[in-house]
Design brief:
Number of strands: 3
Low-confidence stretches: none
Largest sheet: 3 strands, antiparallel
Distance between the termini: 48 Å
Structural class: mainly alpha
CATH architecture: Orthogonal Bundle
Strand order of the largest sheet: 1-3-2
CATH topology: Multidrug-efflux Transporter Regulator, Chain: A, Domain 2
Number of helices: 4
Radius of gyration: 15 Å
Number of domains: 1
Strand content: 5-15%
Order of helices and strands: HEHHEEH
Shape: globular
Oligomer: single chain
Length: about 80
């Protein structure tokens, strides 16, 4: 819980492009869950970096995700369910 409170005080706009962010920091900044961040990584919407045994994200990659977020959500087609009888 303490990590989350600290992460919300983070202002990503003032960080250098090569600053590395943790998973809780990115989730908190983007207001998404960890599982959503995993889906973003798997689909290529954000790039993760392996640092030792952990995962980090460059601040520039998080900013790019934010810039593209509107385009991503608009361009994704909604899944229509069909009922087979």
């Amino acid at each position: 819980m303490r990590e989350r409170k600290l992460a919300r005080k983070l202002d990503i706009r003032t960080l250098p492009d090569d600053a590395l962010l943790t998973i809780p920091e990115v989730c908190s900044y983007l207001y998404i869950s960890r599982s959503t961040l995993v889906r973003f990584c798997e689909s290529g919407k954000i790039t993760k970096r392996k640092v030792g045994s952990g995962v980090r994200f460059y601040a520039s990659d998080v900013r790019a995700c934010i810039r593209n977020f509107t385009a991503i959500t608009i361009s994704e087609p909604t899944a229509e369910r069909t009922l087979s009888q």
